[in-house]
Records
---
Amino acid sequence: MKVAIQNNAKVLALFAVACTALVSLVSLLTKDTIARQEQQQLLSTLHQVIAPERINNDLYQDCQFIKDEEYLGSNQSQTAYIARMDHVPVAVAITSVAPDGYNGNIQLLVAINVDGTLSGVRVLKHKETPGLGDKIETRKSEWVYNFNDKDIIDEKDLRWAVKKDGGMFDQFTGATITPRAVVNAVKNTMLYFNQHQKDIISNTTSCRGQHD
Amino acid sequence: MAFFIASSPHNHIQAETSALMRLVIMAAIPGVIAQWYFFGWGSIIQICLAITFAVLAEITFLAIRDKNIKAQITDFSAVLTGLLIGISVPSIAPWWITVIGSVFAIMVVKQLYGGLGFNLFNPAMAAYVMLLISFPVQMTSWQPANELLTHDISFFNHLWLILTGYTWEGFSVEQIRMNIDGITMATPLDTLKTDLTLGLTVFESISNPVFGENFSVGWEWVNAGFFLGGIFLIAKKAIDWVIPVSFLTALWLFSFIAFSLSPDSSASTMFHWLAGGTMLGAFFILTDPVSAATTRKGRVTYAALVALLVYIIRKFGGYPDAIAFAVLIANMAVPLIDQYTRPRTYGHKGAE
Amino acid sequence: MTERSEYKELSWQGLWKNNPGLVQLLGLCPLLAVTTTLTNAIGLGLATLLVLVCSNATISAIRQWVPKEVRIPIFVLIIAAFVTCVQLLMNAFTFGLYQSLGIFLPLIVTNCAIIGRAEAYASKNPVKPASFDGLMMGVGFALVLMTLGAIREILGQGTLFDGAELLLGEWASILRIEIFTSDTSFLLAILPPGAFIAMGFLIAAKNAIDSSIAAKQPKAEAKTIERVRVNFEG
């Protein structure tokens, strides 16, 4: 009996070692490709909001963590990517959160030019009602392109609201809460940028843990 | 043909199925008239469309299944399903919404499960939910009551609007729904929900014109109409009074608890009774003998469960009204409820 | 049974008679969740197929050395290892698809079709038929996934092969077919309830085909009945 148990344990251990070895091998072989793919994925999203012709720095490395619950909508750290042309800052892309969507948080990427105008906005992740609130995605509707080139004066800028509330952005048929939440979050992100522009641009440490 | 649909002692009139169905259809008339008075001809057109296509679908599928068409079509159950769909869809929804809904109700929800008496879900409500999640824009485009409209719409204009999406003068559904300030108006339930997310209190929100002087312009009278019809049905012993009483009491209780805990973010109890499809649900949908629970205790539980779900979904859910979702979920619980509330047969011991 | 008829039987079982998706109803969770587009369905189908063939082959090859008492943990280990490898490979080479399949890729481990075949067939048969069985079961599963994916994509979006570039690289975006365009898509088809309804119709269609085939061959039916009677009388 004891021998049988010992034998079984040995066989099991042997297979565990063999399987782990196989997985580690594959992991080792694919590690670099996966890292490169993730980097490319992030860059292609960033390039949607900041045209690649305008920049020549390594956007992936030129980033920093920022945190502001009031303006960026979350108590988690958000990331700011700084786009530069020959070391001169061109625009900053900031991830932020609209906490008051119809079904919870909406994660956004907001790119702002150094002159304060918007370069572009994309929705990274959301849980809005299909068919009503999901028109914030570029694949469903052109709505999010309305943000391009818009600017903001101050906190009391009345244009920064949906048309139903007297602002300049369309709401969707049957859904006002979603666009209202997105407009509000973009507005707050821009206000944050206007306050902290100097700090963000002058920062030289990379969020990847390395110095330039 | 006698068609016993519920296990009996509770089915007080031993009449034929068709007589029962006819009674229910007649009882819906006051509510329909109220709908016509406040929302115009659109709802009447929708009801006609829905009944026509429900009956056509019933005939087609009975023919495919080699059933006796004449015997089953004269039980009026397809007419009732069509009527309920016609009442529930927005009065200015495009015609194909109603047609898809009616055909789905009869074909998938009723006939594929084996016809009348075998359907697990309430056909009209399953069709309504299918329409709502598939075409949310059209299904939430309720027109405001006539007195809030800037354009008066005639019968002909309503027909044209349903068939083509525009009135004869060329106004779109969107323009019809706008008030004088050019703002699209939603139903009272929807308006309240939107306002609460804006940080307004209930008290501030109900100054909106859609709520009128009492609870909600038009809707309160539609609900009153269905309430009247429901009383008539109970008086005729066509439906069991336990279900609506249990449902309305439970809904009153849940909204009262919430209202006393946080009056700023919860609507009043009367608002829950008189907005949306509460009364239609209480007397005409929950009482469907096929998909409701069969025992007395089971019916109390079933109706209270629906009330709880209605309240939770109205308050926290992603869609404005909740009767249909709540009924479908409770339908699924019916076999379980029946299992645990089976009455003790005389001479046998109680549940083990 | 000759070798050829054995393979023929395996194909018949995997592709139709004992199809893991339509008859055994195994792996329903990924089946219903990811089939919103044809591309997703092909991606998950191929991943499952690969895992199924590899695990069947491995388990059959080692079947002499595995003690009966600990076979299940060992099967699970092997399957989990292959799933992790497939997941890593997809993460590296089809990154977009990896993201759109999300949690359902690692969930292949819990797909009962795989451990079911390991236990029922691969652990009792030589490597060659075991791999073939894995191939046929995998293809059968992938075909159901693809049918469901195609139906739901056409109804819900009016397209086919939307997002094929995620699976096959940039060139594949030309594969996308726009069947019809409409402002109001039939959302139900893409949502989970639509998956259940479409799956129900697929199973019904299979049963209808089976019974119409059975109706055409009354003689084979009669034979089995005769044998039952002999047993009872004896």
---
Amino acid sequence: MPDVRDRQISLELSGITKVFPGAVALNRVSLTIRGGEVVGLIGENGAGKSTLMKVLGGAIEPDQGSLVIDGETVTALTPARATRLGIAFVHQELNPFSNLDVTANVLLGREMRSGMLGLLDRSSMEKKVAPILELLGTRFGPRDPVSALSLADLQLLEIARALSINVRLLILDEPTSSLTISETSRLLEVVRKLRADGVAVLFITHRLTEIVDVADRVVALRDGCNAGELSRGEITRDRMVRMMIGRDVSQFYETSDHAAGRPVLELKGLRTRAYPHQAVDLCLRAGEILCLAGLVGAGRTELARAIFGIDPVEGGRIEIDGKPLAGNSVPHAIAAGICLVPEDRKTEGLFLDFAILENIAMPSHAALSRKGFVDLGAETRLADAAKRKLRIKASSLGRAVAELSGGNQQKVVLAKWLAMKPKLIILDEPTRGIDVGAKAEVYHLMQQLAAEGVALLMISSDMEEVIGISDRVAVMCRGRIAGVLGRGDLTEENILRLAVE
Amino acid sequence: MQKKDIGLATLVVTVGAIVAMVNPRFLSPVNLANTANLIGLFGLFSIAEAFVIVTAGIELSIGSVIALIGVIFVDLIASHGVPWPIALLIIMALSVLIGLLHGWLITRLRLQPFVVTLCGLLIYRGVARFYTRDGTAGFTFGSDFPILEFLVSGRTAGVPHSVIAFGLVAVVAWFLLHRTVFGRHLFAVGKNAEAARYSGINTNRVIIQAYVLCIFLTGISAVFFAMYTRSVQPSSHGNFYELYGIAAAVLGGFSLRGGEGSVVGVVLGVILLQILQNLVNLLGIPSSLNFAVMGSVILAGVIADTQFSRYREARRQQLAMSAIRDSKED
């Protein structure tokens, strides 16, 4: 049907309602979009953005509401039908087939065949994929194995897959969360080019500057309902934030004035598996927030994993309160008062199918037990206190963590460690993929912990956050500490200069 | 979990009632005692299997271990004159060693549980047959061990001791799995080993403990089986028992993906499977159809379970929808 593909899309959603057990994800939501238009979709985590996108992609059937595409009402949209209508969807979660190469991934399910036997026509497939990769300016080619690609490359691969279907509506769900600054600007360039070609682009992101850069219109969702719309001229950061959370955020980053105390963590010539020839020396004091900045692959996560005992240490010493760790394992680290909020909360931080209570109590089971028996009463009190302190939004502690929004899930990960009364908390990208409101709460909590004398080591790629919250920043480059900046020297330029040196 | 158990209990009672109505002999004391005895015997290793399945593992060598431990136990006593308490201690130690070996291969050498225990299934069966030169290990005529026989195959007030042992093991297993820190860790490791490691759980140790516990219990059940049959024919003794244990666990709500299941469920699963065996005998169904009946019931049970949970999901959805509609009218 070439006629459908060539026409610009006009799409209208109205009165969309979707209910999940225990939560109303969407409540009479409306949205329109036309070809040649970039619409930014914003909202806190749990506001219903992802659910709305899944409705558009045909992955979820709404309980109520209508979907009109090109003037025709569409019922029972399936992912296959959505693809035929020219709707392409770039997921927030990446699911590449790491056993296949780039071409096979981009054209998966739409492979080209030739000859009597219908064998794969590799050369035509590569010819089709190559120009798309060129448009995106990727570092990888059509024949590269996907297993060798970085997280950012995989994101671009996913976008290439969407572009390969002659797209009329491109839905991007947080496409830049793992991209560097230059990759992001490249992607925004592609979005502008697609708009010029008459494609409609629906852009979901937590990075509001990107919306200011590229969107023609902004639609905000709050608690599953429409929360307002802004046209091009009205788009400002403040107005977007106000629509999303329904109030002003007067002071987002709190500056801390607490004096750093005794040294809590000292690394002496620590060498990790990722960079076995680089020795790292670092000292972190009580009440201090130290940020590890640097490019993806600089060895920051590997350093955190080594301190926490996930990965073996290749050499050097880790000292807590002046005493070396008794051993290199997670239980030893926890016993010494170290805890880690991992980078990937869904696989490393949480048991998604387990109840909130069970997740929060998991590291404390042994400490709260009576002769090996679980003390349910003590665990409930612990989890209940944590739920109130961190303001975890959930109807009960018995709910599965999978039913919570990203921000609330992250709070559960934090809650499970706070119960341990840690001396040192390592936070690896603690606010990745969580909304403005939850971010502010995480920052507030970090400041509160620092004031209580806990040492915090944060890994972050969000410059704004690094500069906004840190007392000191240690910039890593290829496994070594390239330099440490105090509050006075904290500028984006200084950090980047050290990071790429 | 609770609801699943209630559903299964209802099924057990229903099937039992139907069999009793068609053939009243089902409720005769002799038949009940025999069936109960078999429930006890098969229940011991089914619980053992469940402890491994909950960690997302599998233990395929149970039948072969029962044969190997069985021939060694009988041979030690009958041919070598070893006092039975010593023989018991020896086979307990041997079971623990086998469990340690499986756990070590799975955690340290990172082999897949299926492969490790499949090799175990072949190896122990072969060793058992070689050990007796493919002959039958049995007690010589007239030999008699009153205390051992009373403990293992005797009865108290008409209740076979295998049932009492099964009951005790089930109670301990219930506390262990559902009320202790070790149990929580078993579920955690089975559900998400990575997150368990990040929570400070020594996942390797938990997995090794699960296999040791499993084979230890299997060793105990091997003694019960050896004393039940009185002679052990190593090429057929205990054949397919591992699959029986897996079936009971799955029927009882354990997921082969790990992290799910309850001891009450596996106990009910064992009971249901034995009633079905009994049903085949009592209703005059050709005994060749034995496995077919068992397989069909398990399949039906699993299908019913998934359908019920879909139905529950749909109902919850409807309730939530009507709640919004009500709030709209306000």
